[in-house]
Design a protein that fits this description.
Gametogenetin-binding protein 2; 4 strands; two-stranded antiparallel sheet; mainly alpha; GGNBP2; 12 helices; two-stranded antiparallel ribbon; binds zinc ion; elongated
Length: 306
Amino acid sequence: TCSACCNALRVMMERKLAELSLLRVVVEREDESGAYVLKHSLATPDGIDAACAQFPLGEWLKKCHPLKRDKRCPMHTNSRHIFNQADLWEDMWAELSSAQKSTICTVTAEELHDKLWQHCTDKHHLCKDCRNNVMWAYDRLTRKEQTPVGTEAEQEAELSSLQAYFDLDACRDGAICVHSSALPTILYHYEDTLAEEAESSTKGRHAPTRQAGLSEMLCVVGRLLLRKVLTSYQTSLEEEQNQQLLVRLVLSYFQTQSLERRAQQCAESLLEEDLGANGKTSKRKLKKERQKKRQEALGGEEQHVA
Ligand SMILES: [Zn+2]
Ligand SMILES: [Zn+2]
């Protein structure tokens, strides 16, 4: 396997069995020395063979076979670049668990602040007024003390715009929570803005109103979220591959042991037959003969009693 797979397996074996959902299908527990104890139902030659047929090692190894140049498997060669244009974030998003989704949708305020600042300065060179509108949206989100601006109707509209995308009550302790149901809308908004930008690259970027400032902030949030979706998806693919590899290696180890034991038993019984044929009586034969004699003697006694 590739070196990244080896490292991943090493880390994985240090994890608790409870975290390795796939391995728990075949392993009962870990003993005091940390060795995996096979499930009782699999502890027969047929049981282990059936499990190995379900998780064949050979087939899987092809999947994580290192490629020529950098000695890494396809997964680790393409790490962070595994996605091409055909991979849709919609599909990835749909496959993620709700726990993963809520992790993705929690962004640290500090990170967002840094990205917003980069967006307003280095990236788009917004003028001071536009920049203020963008940073106003950020301040509104992080609930910094603000003197209300605009009419009451404007304030209400701005608040409801924010509430549509962000869980304002959950935004605290430097964390910003996006409604996971709003993620697709935010990502589409980001993609649309990118497309518009590509079409009119000569025009400078502006955020002349507070709502436009919010829209700019949503773009930055969208970019952050998109990256998190890709990374999270990649991580879950790697986790799946590593767990699949681990369960196959463990089963294959038990199967090898089982085969060795069977071969040994086979050799022993052949040896016994061999010895028997050579005129020397094997222990088992001797034992059988002794039993026979005992039964005859017992039968004799019974007859005697009768
Ligand atoms: Zn690998
Ligand atoms: Zn401007």
